[in-house]
Amino acid sequence: MKFTISRNSFHSTLQKVIHVIPAKSTVDILYNVLIIAEGGQLKIIATDLEITQVAWSECNVEQDGSIVVPGKLLMDIIREMPDLEITFSADNNFKILIESNFGEYKLSGQSKTEYPSVPLVESDEKIELDNSVLKRMIEKTIFACSTDNLRPALTGVFFQIFEEEIRMVATDGHRLVKIVHKNSGNQEFTKELIVPTKALNFVARNLPEKGKQQITFSESHVLFELPNTNIYTRIIKEPFPDYERVIPQNYTKEMLIAKDDFVSSVKRVSLFSNPMTYQVRLMVETDKLTVHAQDIDFGGEAKETIPCSFNSEALEIAYNANYLLDILRHIDTEKIKFLVEDSDGPGLVYPEEQGENEEIVMLIMPVRIRS
Amino acid sequence: MTYFQNTIVQERVLYFFNKSIEQDRLAHAYIFYGSEGTGKEAFALELAKAVNCLAEDAVPCNSCSSCVKINKFSHPDILYSFAAPGNIKDAEIRDLLKQKSANPYRALPIAGHRTVSIDIIRRLKHEAKYAPNEARKRFFIISGAQFFSREAANSFLKLLEEPPENLHIILITNELHLLLDTIRSRCQPVYFPSFTEEQIKEIVKKYQHFEGDLTAIIRMAQFNLNKVFDFLIDDPTEKWELVYAYLKSVAKNDIPSILSIIDRISEKRDKNLISQFLSLVILWLRDALNISITNDEQALVNMDYGEAIANFSRFFEPSDFGSIIEKVEQARTDIERNAHPALTLTHLSLEMNAALKRKTTDQVREEAI
């Protein structure tokens, strides 16, 4: 194979996929990238067996071919080069020659046959989403995923594609986020699947601000088609819990509170909470909210009062401050609607007004207060 | 479609898996057991190749991309893990895998305390939650299953009980009885008997260039394929010389010479070396017993020393060899269980000397006629 390409486009193509290469693996071949030159195009593929990313750019191909090259080494060479024409060639014995005006670099590669194949995603089940919508849905859900491998289904974000709307749900058993994008239209199928968080992080990182992108679903993989790059990810094949049953429908007690006040107050007070439990207590009254934390072991204690409005008699409830802050930070509106029924039941957090075509619900489980 | 045409494997195993694959009734978990050097790991890989091979008639073809990847341990859905020391580095694992891929019939050269760690099981569980990448049927192969740590075994049970679809687990062990009952009862055991001499010769031909006759080496290795490869790389003649010298000194009760030989054997503080030495002593005694009864030098394990063995059995009472072999075996077990090597060997030498009964000159002459 032989092709010439400018350093900058080689670098930016390689840069896209290089993060997929695992930092630590027992499978030797994963430290490599697969380079394919054909039809005036350079394609670079990297995989960690969970995510496969393909990136491409235009180049001048003299001879078609493919080769497997140590990824980090290649990146290190290209990164340090100024913007020049680079000629990349490989012979039948997998000896690689990289030439530029400065000089030449020789390294050895491997045959393509040993490299894990790019997943085949041939399916009619496709949806199209605005980049901004997808990015937003990923950002709002991904933080709530579990990292506990004992419950594999919770280590990903649950996608539900209906004819009228697209839902994404994430939970780790302590909190839950459901975000619905309505009126996404043109769907002819319904589908439910779990996408691993790692892949979604990659997608969010590679998403440009504007435009639309296509997502294709097959039995075992999902394909995200982004500009000049494709991301394939495996699907978690586990049943997702019936989350609808967890979200209570008939809550009447509602607190309305300014988000920024609430967040910074909880942040300050939680510094004094027990470092094991991060428990903060909220005392909700009709016109004020008292945030209280105490660390009995070290004698620290903090208490703050901020204004709010609550439509019921006083109630005391306790949360893990970290979970609470995580949720509050992901609400965009100035005021937060906080629904709670009693001190043992889940709390529901809504933005004061839902965005256009959107519905967000966040749920947080309380810490039981000893009485 | 024919299976395993080019695979060298014990007939009963071949028959069993031919049937299972044809009827599409592969079990979700197997235990391959049998003594060392019976090609269990190699066959586990062959099985994974056969089921996933892309060729259309004879499988495994060993040339399609699926087979090549399995051979090189780079297939994303065929995971091979093995019991290893807890602090093993990824680079070492990759190195060991390269050796295994060069010759799957050789045992991995791992010294020291080995476990199947919880990390290995975590990795497998992590992998199991996904849909397969490209394989029709996924295989998780765990070698050294007798070395499961307690946490690993318990964590593994969950996967073993509810494996996802099209996932097959193969546990490989030399010692079936050391596995937890809870694991053993959830797998189908498959016994691997020793290879025949022809099979060993054929396999050796594939992986190692060797001129000359393998028969002697195969007998010396007692049909243990792994040992055959050991002996091919590390010539045993020197060791036989030592055994010969040792037995000579014991018979003569030449204490200084015995002690110097014992020093030579135990100076490297390698238990395996000593146990290998004692195994050779046992083989020698077995040969001597054999020749005293059959008088057939062709049947010997150690054909190079035929004459010396014949002489040995001529001068000593063969009826005592049995009890001596027992003593040597006891010493070998003791040393494997961390008895002091030099002391045990010295004690053994004195005991052997006391047990060896020299025939009278008259007896020898009589028998010679």
UniProtKB/TrEMBL annotation, chain B:
Entry protein name: DNA polymerase III subunit delta'
Signal peptide span: none
Keywords linked to the UniProt accession: DNA replication, DNA-directed DNA polymerase, Nucleotidyltransferase, Transferase
Pfam families, alphabetized: DNA_pol3_delta2 (PF13177), DNApol3-delta_C (PF09115)
Chemical reaction(s) catalysed: DNA(n) + a 2'-deoxyribonucleoside 5'-triphosphate = DNA(n+1) + diphosphate
KW Nucleotidyltransferase (keyword) present: yes
GO cellular component term, pick one: DNA polymerase III complex
Coiled coil stretches, renumbered: none
InterPro entries associated with the record: DNA_pol_III_delta_C, DNA_Rep/Repair_Clamp_Loader, P-loop_NTPase
E.C. code: 2.7.7.7
Occurrences of domain DNA polymerase III delta subunit C-terminal (ranges): 271-346
Gene Ontology molecular function terms on file: DNA binding; DNA-directed DNA polymerase activity
Domain of life from the UniProt record: Bacteria
Organism of derivation: Caldithrix abyssi
Record-level GO BP terms: DNA-templated DNA replication
